[in-house]
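Contributing new records

If you add data, match the layout below exactly. Sequence lines come first and carry their own label; structure lines follow with theirs. Keep one chain per record. Anything else will be rejected by the validation script.
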Amino acid sequence: MKTVSIRDAKNRLTELAREVEEGETIVVTRNGRPVFDLVPHRPRGGINLDAIEAFKRERGLERLVTYISDDFDDPLPEDFLLQPLPEKP
């Protein structure tokens, strides 16, 4: 990981951009303290709503989730994570 001052980054932005395009991460500093990183662009992730609608349409579904229990968001018992997992048959 390369470190450059903000002034240096301003003067060499095109050169630094080329390095970032090749996969390098560059930390830009002001007065020796990191301010931001120049990193390669990544396409945004997340939910593809169009794909969900197509999935439902192809299968004749109106909803993906048809039922949510009334106690869905109730707190779990205090010892929930301390209980052993059930043994596999």
